[in-house]
C-alpha cells in the first residue's frame, strides 16, 4: 500500500480507536465505582430468592451501615422470582451473587449449573405445615384427612412425604392440593385447604396479619427432619473475578447478619422502601424474629453466621437424594466453596 494512503487510513482510524478506548473505560462494562471517601469499590449485584421480606433485613442493614463499603463493595440488591431462577441467573453470570434455597442449589449443580454455595445462613429449615389455631392441629398425626396446599416440584412438597414417614404417616393420609406459590395463603384463608406448606419465616406471619387469626406451625425441624435452607451463592464467573471478591462478599454478608442479629429493630427499619410489595413493618419484624431462630445447627452454635460444617452439608444432600431432587449426589466440595466461605 502507498505510504501516503496508509498514513491517511491510520489518521482516520485514530479518533475511532480513542472513542473505543474511552467507551470501554467509562461504559457499562466498568465494574468499579468510587465511594464518598474516595475509596475504590467493586460494583456487585445480589439477587434475592424472592421479593424482599423480613429474612432479607441484614442485607439492607449492612448496606445502610456501610458494612459492604468497608469491604470494598458497592452493593445493589435485586428482587428475585424464586430460588430456582436465582440459581440459574447466578450460574450464568446475570447476577454476581444470589440468595437461594440450598435444595435449588443442589438440583442446579445436579443439572450442570456452574454455581456454588459460599455458606448457608438458615441452617435449621423453616419448612413447616402452617394452619390457623382453630384447625386443632397439635401434632403430625392430626394432619390425617386434612387438605394441604403445596406446589408441585418444590423442596417443601418433595420433602413432605419424608416428614410424614418420620411421623408415622403416609402421603395417602393427607391430600396435597397443587397450588401456585402466590395462592397458598389465599387457599387457607378461603377455606379451600386446611393448611399450607411454607416457611415459618415467610408465609405464616403474612397469613396471620391478613386474616387476623393466630397461625400455628408443625416445623419439620421439630419433628425429625432438618436440612439446610437459604444461603449465599456465586457462579464460576464471579468466583474468578477480582481474586478475593467472593471472600470479601462473604465477610460482608456474615458481618451484616451478625450486626442485624444484635439490632433486629433497626435492621427491619432499614428495609423501608425496599419494594412496593414489602409487607407491613409488624410482619417484617415477625419474619425476621423467626429467621433468627434458624441460623445454626448444634454443630455451628456460637459460630459466625454462615459458618457451615461438612457433616451438615452431607445430611442435607442425603435428604434431597432421598426426596429425588438430587439424582447424582456429589461430594460436598462440588456444592460448597469452603475456601471462600465463613471462617468459624
Automatic annotation (TrEMBL):
<feature type="domain" description="SsuA/THI5-like">
    <location>
        <begin position="55"/>
        <end position="265"/>
    </location>
</feature>
<dbReference type="Pfam" id="PF09084">
    <property type="entry name" value="NMT1"/>
</dbReference>
<dbReference type="InterPro" id="IPR027939">
    <property type="entry name" value="NMT1/THI5"/>
</dbReference>
<keyword id="KW-0732">Signal</keyword>
<dbReference type="InterPro" id="IPR015168">
    <property type="entry name" value="SsuA/THI5"/>
</dbReference>
<protein>
    <submittedName>
        <fullName>ABC transporter substrate-binding protein</fullName>
    </submittedName>
</protein>
<feature type="signal peptide">
    <location>
        <begin position="1"/>
        <end position="25"/>
    </location>
</feature>
